[in-house]
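Note on ligand handling. Small-molecule inputs were canonicalized before submission; formal charges were left as drawn, and no protonation-state enumeration was performed. Where a ligand contained multiple stereocentres, the stereochemistry in the source SMILES was retained. For zinc ion, this procedure yielded the string shown in the input block below.
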Amino acid sequence: MSLLTVNECGLYCKQGDFYIDPWKPVKTALITHGHSDHMRWGMAHYVCHHHTVPLLHLRLGADNSVQGVAYEEVMEFKGVKVSFHPAGHIIGSAQIRMEYQGEVWLFTGDYKLEADGVSQPYSLVKCDHFITESTFGLPIYNFPSHSSVYGDINSWWKANREGGLNTVLLGYALGKAQNILAHADVNLGPVFLHGAVDNVNKALEEVGYRFVGTRITADIKRDAIRGALVVAPPSAMDTPWLRSLHPYRIAMCSGWMQLRGARRRKGVDRGFVLSDHCDWRQLNQAVVQTGAREVYVTHGYEHNFSKWVREKYNIGASIFKTLYNDAEEEIV
Ligand SMILES: [Zn+2]
Ligand SMILES: [Zn+2]
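Structure output:
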């Protein structure tokens, strides 16, 4: 008897009568994290981690019915025990654990095993049935450690500054941007923000986070920005806002930057391989460590990864077809 199935509205738990990250309006929606493909408009009631609440208000409006929960806090939905556990993806991100009649199911949402220094690190949750994303579920995705990438980013900023150039880093406004800000070497120079990044930072201040950086407004003199680090979302490409930052060098921060030709196709000077998802090695590690006897693979390379799990580990693996896409990171 399945505790979680996919229907036209999303991942549904019939026994507990709730959905997880639904894509159509439903009564009760448990939300893994604040990215737009997982947290959608129109639910009668939302349940998410405390730190996701201000993000929900920012994105979907303050008039929604939202219940904030802590990690490890156990709730009951018609006899189904439900709890949220750190997914290490972005601030507030959660894996959702469900227990019913002795069986444990776990939905990862988006996750990564490497700690990013900003979000609560991933915690291993043992389960019988494991539903995992597969955004980077191919062996070619083998990410360098974050600390080495931030070292490269700061060196590049320093070189650009010495050449009289601004440094623009493109990364998703929720997640990537905060990680970049937390690791920027502020001794090198000033840090400035695109409005979309500043809006997310302001929302996160409500739950106690603080990030460096000044929003670029019309009254900021361009001379004050010279040699600065500027953090902006990918959507800032080819906008008058970006052109006003000349002269600059620009880089994209994304797991997709590991693909040959990705930097050139995106039209940026540099690509930094920086992801908030598991790479191939981490996906395999998670599958093994959860001890699951049945695996269900969602968004990404679900065909490839489910086949791999079946053949490599000799456990059941199938596909959950969902509408999550992580398009915010996708550049290919
Ligand atoms: Zn996400
Ligand atoms: Zn996702």
